[in-house]
Amino acid sequence: xxxxxxxxxxxxxxxxxxxxxxxxxxxxxxxxxxxxxxxxxxxxxxxxxxxxxxxxxxxxxxxxxxxxxxxxxxxxxxxxxxxxxxxxxxxxxxxxxxxxxxxxxxxxxxxxxxxxxxxxxxxxxxxxxxxxxxxxxxxxxxxxxxxxxxxxxxxxxxxxxxxxxxxxxxxxxxxxxxxxxxxxxxxxxxxxxxxxxxxxxxxxxxxxxxxxxxxxxxxxxxxxxxxxxxxxxxxxxxxxxxxxxxxxxxxxxxxxxxxxxxxxxxxxxxxxxxxxxxxxxxxx
Length: 284
Ligand SMILES: [Zn+2]
Description:
single chain, Muramoyl-pentapeptide Carboxypeptidase, domain 2, Muramoyl-pentapeptide Carboxypeptidase, domain 1, globular
């Protein structure tokens, strides 16, 4: 395992409470911190009205219209040698200042600029209190593995008969999916993150030469549509490298190398569109 922030679990828990679009941006910011070994504690995200009143009374907050009340703000503190650095000057030092700049690049407003609220990052979205419905793709799980570690993980998962959607060192949707399938089938907590228990289980299965997945070549066919436009639209919505047949209004996905991954895609298509898609197997 490569470097993990000192308060990683607490950070993930707090990030989870943010409004959906703010959360997606905040996860990108946190991933940047992880990738650059910038240790932070995200100590507060959502806040109740009562807490906000208390903060105002103490002088810690200046408005009742806090972005924390609507899940559009987080507060973080730099961590150095495992200890929180609360002084304002800590925020102006490398690498924490770079983290603030990156947050701004992602569209956050930094309390650091106001001069009196350095921990604070808020996301305006479409205005105060507007971030209620998810309009972006789900936030990707935070990955703490290096590219090389991810490559090794992908090779191992492939050996177990799972489809990581390429062995490329990128911990994307395909790898997350493969990890979740493995976790489900072995009774582990299903979070898509290859933590200590999951990695130990993978090595154990490899030693036993077990197959967790069903390797092969599979595609998911959605079916036919009345018009080419409807077929295009359905293909776009699937997101799994979907294609429309050249001479027909049939939509199909790219190739999956395990039956289980194709089944995941099939279930998603069915939930999303209400169709009953078919999985087609090819001999190699
Ligand atoms: Zn704040």
